Amino acid sequence: MAKLTFIGTGGGRFATILQKRSTGGIYIADRGILIHLDPGPGALVRMIGVGLDPTQTDAILVSHCHPDHYNDAEILMEAMTMGGKHRRGVVVGSHSVLNGSTDYSPLSNYHLSLVREAKAVRPGDEFTLKEWYKVKATPTRHSDETGVGFKLHLNNGIISYTGDTEYFEGLARPHQGARILVVCMTRPRGMRIPFHLSAEDAVQLIQEVQPEFAILTHLGMKAIPLAAEQATWITEQTGVTTIAAKDSMRIYAGDTIEVKRK
């Protein structure tokens, strides 16, 4: 059974600055593997608060080079390697995350040297974790042009994560077959902005992918107070059960999908 723990469900500049919602990303546990996806500010403190052990993590996936997605990655790399004592684990990220630029890199060479493997991916790249779990990097259209989403093939079906992106033709295709689609929806209906998904965009995406279950996360300041209402509207429009994630919420995906709120 796969378990998703939403360490943080906020996103965007001001939701992050004000911590209107936590921004710690998503922790995915399946048989034999523990994955931290987009560990933004507060990830370490919040995961300990919900009873997760950062030293047990096997892989850290970072979709792109914005602080609300990568901020705590370095300290979590130290945790994953027991302070650098054990060279283990893998870090996978967009080229901006792993390679940085001529004057800036979010992950130091020291921290990259601690892990067993560091892998930069582009949309369409496939890789395996723990020699078993296939992951595919999916395309995005965002202000970080190298950004990716992730499609994870787990024991009880595919969990697909959009990453930060605006809607574009072809966005849905790589997420086809997802049992659970995790949508980074920064804006509610009627408030679309460039490079991000709004509720209307989420409807179009979910209709095209047709997952068994959809989850809204990475909620911006304007989306947070309307999140439950937007999820209900999206469910009505698509016929796909859609919920708005809350901090510390857990999703269990076995024969059925169960939601456990804090």
Written description of the protein model:
There is one protein chain. This protein is of the alpha/beta class. The chain has one domain: Metallo-beta-lactamase, Chain A (4-Layer Sandwich), CATH 3.60.15. Helix content is 23%, strand content 31%. It is built from 8 helices and 16 strands. The strands form 2 sheets. It has an 8-stranded mixed sheet. Strand 9 and strand 10 form a beta hairpin. The longest helix is centred in the last third of the chain and has 12 residues, at 227-238. The protein is globular. The chain starts with a strand and ends with a strand.
Query: CATH top level?
Result: Alpha Beta
The Cα radius of gyration reads: 17 Å
Oligomer: single chain
What proportion strand? 25-35%
Helix content: 10-25%
As laid out across the biggest beta sheet, the strand order is 6-5-4-3-2-1-15-16
Number of helices: 8
**Overall mean pLDDT score?**
96
Order of helices and strands: EHEEHEHHEHHEEEEEEEHEHEEE
CATH superfamily: Ribonuclease Z/Hydroxyacylglutathione hydrolase-like
C-alpha geometry:
globular
**Second CATH tier, the architecture:** 4-Layer Sandwich
- Main structural class: alpha/beta
Keywords:
alpha/beta, 262 residues, 8 helices, globular, 8-stranded mixed sheet, Metallo-beta-lactamase, Chain A
Briefly, what is this?
The chain is α/β, with parallel strands linked by helices and about 260 residues long. It is built from eight helices and 16 strands.
